[in-house]
Amino acid sequence: MQNNNSNDAASFNTQNEVPVTKIPLIESVQANPQDSSQQPKTPPHDKESFQREQPHLSILSPTDSPRTQPLGSDGSCEADNQSLNSPLTEPNSSTEDGDVFNEGITISAELAGLYAENILAKIYRTACKSMIGERRFPDYFPEYVPQDGPDTGSYTLREAEFWTCGFFPGSLYSLLERAIRFPAHLGIPNATSSPQPNGINLQTVRLNLHALCDTWSRPLHEMTSRTDTHDIGFIVMPALRLDWELTGNSRSLDSIIQAAKSLATRYVPTSGAIRSWDLLLKKNLEIRDQIENMILIIDSLCNLDLLYYAASHMPDGKELYDIATSHARVLLRTHLRKEPPMSLDSSSYRGAWYSTCHVANIDPRNGELKARLTHQGYDNESTWARGQSWGILGYAQTYMSTKDDEFLWAACGLAEYFLHRLKTAPDCVPQGTRLVPLWDFDAPIDDPSDPLRDSSAGAIAANGMLVLSQGLAAAGQDKLSIRYRRAAVEIVRELLDFAQAPEKARLVRGSTSAITVEDEIPQTFDAILKFGTANNNQYSKKRYSNHGLVYGDYYVVEFGNRLLRMGLV
């Protein structure tokens, strides 16, 4: 995330209709990107950090590595086809996966809420609120939804330059992907393929969604030359990657490549890493000097996808690839803290376990670690839940792009420690809610009757474990693959059971045949999930918690799409 302490925010009024705009859509990717002609070789494994050698993976994931072929007519890649014995196929019931993460019913039934009308309706309504008066494109983007106070239930907006601005357009594009590739899972009640008096027309929804996607993504193109932020991956990838893959819009691919080049300017060769923040400002600490200090944060791993994706679509992408891989390798040393394995059932990962710090300060002249810190966690030694989840997702994605085993086993070690901390939560955290993470695993609990959570950490970690399960499946590590896939499903199930806002919305057909949104009960809450915690560090200049978070919602929707792409739903 960006170290931005601005409190600038705005609220928007309600506007639920959007005119139908006839924008052509294509059902499959019309891309013919080229892979980088050269890729760096995988270096020898660090046997001291990883307790055993593992087989090297050579099979690319069809869904999480950059696509270089159009999608099939059914929305699948040819390599998606799984054999009957694939670990991605639901296995027979077994106790080998542990008694906490067993699937008793199908994923479709367990996670039906991921594809409910409520998700489409809420995101659709929020997007339409930007179409007020003469405003054609948004100047502010959704960030969080307070659970109390005068603005309860309504999105607080941030300036377009803030690090979270890409997640809401990304959510819209995830819905557009469902409308194009998986219309049965869009959540439209009584949907029809042709206009009917009492039904909602699927084509109308699809066209409206695409118009809204276009509206909300246009400001992102203007940011691709920014060199003042490492979060440019978060800003452009959620929306523009899908725009390129779903519609063949070459402008979006060009913007991704430009953004990757901009991010690469923050690489400091003598350190082997990309500078995350230019400075760190807290009430008890200020780091301003950039000659002797270089701030790296764990979130940065999730921006590397931008570099890998751009590299795979460029004839000369090796430099971007090398920069990303070097940065990921540096964070293995600067951020990962080795933890002793604390429970080893038959399905647990047998390698090293890791917790992670949030912030590391290194010497940019030689990469030497100077200090491990936090900006959003409880303290410098604690394990901030969302930081741990960024690490899981970041290293899982990095592995999918590099096939370098040390990143795969780092992701496993981070995931295993995350699951252990969930299962061993304090007694005041009720059973049936323990998979909704506490905001920091080591923070004191101020109110045992209502422990402070971070639902977004659960959503991010679940995505990371799902990506991880794909890599492990292709490597022939069936038990670990099933373990992390099941864990991901269980986490999201508890998120939906515990953290999903009860103030749900639904689509209705307006008097002019336009689609409108109304609340099921006379209360509104714009976000899908509650109980997010953006920043609860006592020394932060902006401390806020207990709200919906735009990136929590994005990763919940994206999790549903990942399951669809994998053919698990």
Automatic annotation (TrEMBL):
<comment type="similarity">
    <text>Belongs to the glycosyl hydrolase 88 family.</text>
</comment>
<feature type="compositionally biased region" description="Basic and acidic residues">
    <location>
        <begin position="43"/>
        <end position="55"/>
    </location>
</feature>
<feature type="compositionally biased region" description="Polar residues">
    <location>
        <begin position="1"/>
        <end position="18"/>
    </location>
</feature>
<feature type="compositionally biased region" description="Polar residues">
    <location>
        <begin position="29"/>
        <end position="40"/>
    </location>
</feature>
<dbReference type="GO" id="GO:0000272">
    <property type="term" value="P:polysaccharide catabolic process"/>
</dbReference>
<feature type="compositionally biased region" description="Polar residues">
    <location>
        <begin position="60"/>
        <end position="71"/>
    </location>
</feature>
<dbReference type="InterPro" id="IPR052369">
    <property type="entry name" value="UG_Glycosaminoglycan_Hydrolase"/>
</dbReference>
<protein>
    <recommendedName>
        <fullName>Unsaturated glucuronyl hydrolase</fullName>
    </recommendedName>
</protein>
<dbReference type="GO" id="GO:0052757">
    <property type="term" value="F:chondroitin hydrolase activity"/>
</dbReference>
<keyword id="KW-0378">Hydrolase</keyword>
<dbReference type="InterPro" id="IPR008928">
    <property type="entry name" value="6-hairpin_glycosidase_sf"/>
</dbReference>
<dbReference type="InterPro" id="IPR012341">
    <property type="entry name" value="6hp_glycosidase-like_sf"/>
</dbReference>
<feature type="region of interest" description="Disordered">
    <location>
        <begin position="1"/>
        <end position="100"/>
    </location>
</feature>
<feature type="compositionally biased region" description="Polar residues">
    <location>
        <begin position="79"/>
        <end position="95"/>
    </location>
</feature>
